[in-house]
Amino acid sequence: MNKVNTADDLYLFEEAMPVADLQDGGVFKSECKPDKKIKVDDLFRFRRGLGDYRVSLIVMLIALFFLVFFFTQTGWQNRKLPDNFSAYLGHQFGLFELEGRVGRFGRILKQSWVVPMMCLLLLVPTAIWNFRESRKVHLWRQRFQLPTDASFEFAKYLGALEFVGYFVLYTVTVPVLGYLLSTVLLGTFLTFRLGYRSLTWILRSLATSLGIVVVFRTLLQIKTPASIWLYDQLPAALRSFMLTYF
Predict the structure, then answer these.
(1) What residues does each domain of the chain span?
(2) Is 101 helix (H, G, I), strand (E, B) or coil?
(3) Nearest alpha carbon to residue 90 among 79, 80, 101, 76
(4) Rounded Cα distance, 23 and 1, in Å
(5) pLDDT tens-digit profile of 16-53?
(6) 86: burial class by Cβ within 10 Å (0-12, 13-18, 19+)?
(7) Cβ partners under 8 Å of residue 166, min gap 6
(8) Alpha helices of the chain — where are they, by DSSP H?
(9) Dihedral over Cα of 50, 51, 52, 57: its sign
């Protein structure tokens, strides 16, 4: 007759039993945190995570990098401004005429340096302010000896680069395989990569990819490379058709 193993036979020590406290009349208490109901407001609530301090520092350095090289990359370094600068600005904004020339409102917006400067005027102060607030939270965590390690958050950022690589690979394959085949391969592969690996989901991703091609290439005629290696191997009539619609 086979011996039936009891709980005492399965654990070397009594404290290893998951219900050891229940033997003395205690109450079982789970270490798992209870699930909380997700509110819509919580999805859009701003929180500073452990990796926010490092990311804010990197963003601020990038913004300052653009600011430092703005004058050399936009032509401001060799730019000659008129003596009457206020009149020049008034003419650029279309406020009045200058030397018989008709002023048009918003003329200055056509110059190549204006939009980058407007972006920097918004980006640089915002990045500096965000880093300042993030540093306050980081120092507060250090003061009260709270966790400040951001390796988990940075691992997630690095993990996201995987999908950036997929997009780069997609742009490289379009001139080789064409927009149709490249989009279908990318759509089905990403569905499989994200864990939706049943036949139903694969067919759904295939149909979605074909729909994207029909909308953007066939109907809207979004431009693609004029020379595609795979289409060049086809007969002239079929090649022309694929280049036009797919």
Answers:
(1) 159-246
(2) strand
(3) 101
(4) 29
(5) 455 555 555 556 566 666 666 767 776 677 788 888 89
(6) exposed
(7) 186, 189, 190
(8) 7-10, 40-43, 52-68, 70-73, 85-92, 114-143, 151-177, 179-193, 199-213, 229-232, 236-245
(9) positive
Q: pTM for this one?
A: 0.53
227-245: burial string, b at 16+ Cβ within 10 Å, e else: ebebbeeeeeeeeeebbee
What pLDDT score was predicted for residue 96? 63
Give the CB-side neighbour count of residue 193, counting CA atoms within 13 A. 11
* C-alpha–C-alpha distance, residues 147 and 73, integer Å: 42
Residue type (1 letter), 224: T
Counting as low any pLDDT under 70, the low residues of the chain are: 1-36, 38, 42-43, 77, 79, 81-85, 88-89, 91-109
Q: What pLDDT is attached to residue 177?
A: 93
Q: Which residues make Cβ contacts (< 8 Å) with residue 233, sequence separation at least 6?
A: none
Residue 231 in contact with residue 239, Cβ under 8 Å? yes
- Write out pLDDT tens, residues 175-194: 999 999 999 999 999 999 99
Beta bridge partners of 98: 101
Could you tell me which of 215, 135, 133, 148 has the C-alpha nearest to residue 179? Answer: 215
Q: What single-letter DSSP state applies at residue 14?
A: G
Measure the CA–CA gap between 116 and 213, rounded to whole angstroms: 34
